[in-house]
Design goal:
Blueprint (H helix, E strand, L loop, with lengths): L1 H26 L1 H18 L1 H4 L37 H37 L1 H15 L3 H12 L3 H11 L1 H15 L3 H8 L4 H9 L4 H24 L11 H8 L8 H27 L9
Length: 301
């Protein structure tokens, strides 16, 4: 009888947790705004061919420097205007959405994997292994993140693949420090000692008992880092060291539009707003996750 009821109790517990999660989401206005922006951006990135009204790289000198459609001399065919080569701003922003999100998510995945593995090893085994990994972390932290990223990009050369690799390789230290600290305290818990006494291997203890309890802080940190990576990609591309200029990205649009701010504000302002809203969305979500996943949260449920 108990064997039949246990799965049902687990299902009820999961359903209750999911409902609590939704209630917390509905009660947070900033989180709702963040999720709405994120869902919209994901839809734009997935269905970019449907959202884009023109070929993003198609040039038309007759249509160059057209203002947005709501301004005088604007053309309804180019809703957000055109750039100095007559390329449609809206279409270029749409195609840039996929690049920015891909760079942010891919960079965070690489950072998370490297940092989590090294943090678990460092915190669990300690000793000389911990000292070596932490000294490497100190070396990375001795340099500003953007400066370190610029150094690696200049060494490897500007390309989308190199940019993702650099962001992932330079951003893992935050995860390593977080995971190491949580592992140091977690490995002293009684259930870990019990698993060790029962003969569980180190790998099983690390990945079956310690890691699942670290998922909440890792998810919170990752949501924050995505916005940082998107902003870093735009900064490096703006400086000419990120995504090549042949690929439409928000950073490239900022770089090409800076020379026309006095007479064509839309060239840089609109992609800049996209970057701001995207980073804010991930920050809003990260702040909410920090409270929602905290067992000591003061949310009234």
């Amino acid at each position: 009888m108990n064997e039949i009821q246990l799965p049902q109790k687990e299902k009820d517990a999961k359903r209750s947790s999911f409902k609590k999660f939704l209630r917390l989401l509905v009660r947070s206005r900033t989180a709702m705004i963040g999720f709405i922006i994120l869902i919209f951006l994901l839809l734009v990135a997935i269905f970019q061919e449907q959202f884009a009204t023109q070929d993003p790289n198609k040039q038309s000198l007759r249509a160059r420097m057209l203002p947005p459609a709501w301004e005088e001399n604007g053309d309804p065919a180019y809703l957000l205007g055109t750039d100095q080569l007559g390329r449609d701003i809206l279409s270029r922003m749409v195609y840039g959405t996929r690049i920015s999100l891909f760079v942010g998510f891919a960079g965070v995945v690489i950072s998370t994997v490297i940092g989590t593995v090294l943090g678990l090893i460092s915190g669990y085994y300690g000793g000389i292994v911990d000292s070596i990994i932490m000294r490497i972390v100190d070396i990375f932290l001795a340099f500003p993140f953007l400066l370190l990223a610029i150094t690696f990009v200049v060494t490897l050369g500007p390309s989308l693949q190199n940019l993702i690799f650099v962001l992932g390789f330079t951003g893992w230290v935050s995860y390593a420090r977080l995971v190491r600290g949580q592992t140091l305290s977690g490995k002293e818990q009684e259930y870990i000692m019990a698993a060790r006494a029962l003969g569980a291997s180190n790998a099983r203890i690390i990945f079956k008992h310690i890691l699942p309890n670290l998922l909440a802080p890792i998810i919170i940190l990752s949501s924050m880092e995505i916005g940082l990576y998107i902003m870093t990609e735009s900064s490096l591309t703006f400086l000419g060291m990120g995504v090549p200029s042949t690929i439409p990205t928000w950073g490239n649009m900022l770089a090409t539009g800076r020379n026309y701010l006095s007479n064509a504000w839309w060239l840089s302002t609109l992609p800049g707003l996209c970057i701001i809203l995207t980073v804010l969305a991930f920050n809003f979500i990260g702040d909410w996750l920090r409270d929602a996943l905290d067992p000591k949260s003061t949310y009234d449920v």
